[in-house]
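<derive_structure_tokens>
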Amino acid sequence: MDKETVDRYKTLAQQYDNAVFCETEDKADLFRQSDVMLSDTSSVIYEYLWFNKPAVTYKNTFPANHLINIDTPELLEEALEKALKRPANLMENIRLFMEEVHPFRDGKSSARILDSVDDFIANYKGKIKKKPLNLYRKYKLRKKAGYFPFGPCYKTL
């Protein structure tokens, strides 16, 4: 954010006892201390939902029933009040969404990854055929993306 916007938010936060403007990269403590998140379409929303807490979004690009999405500022107060009440259906939708997005929240993901690596080394390493060189496919992808870092239009520094 530009400095002017940051300063406006800092000033606004100072006007309320229960509002804080934080400039930390460590969001976990903030998530634990807060009751509700208010955001737009930031990916941090999904990190917040892992704490089983509601999020109010403004004009979210992917609104769904695990969020309280509003499209006009006039609905903000009502949306925040709803979030603070933690209605059972909203909390269940958050739980179901998080189960779908990240079902392995048992703290054993690293162990599963290591087991998979060990399994690959024991059973598959050196046994998988290399993919054939597919120049036509590469050309189509580069053409679609407009990416040709060579030839007469390519400039080196």
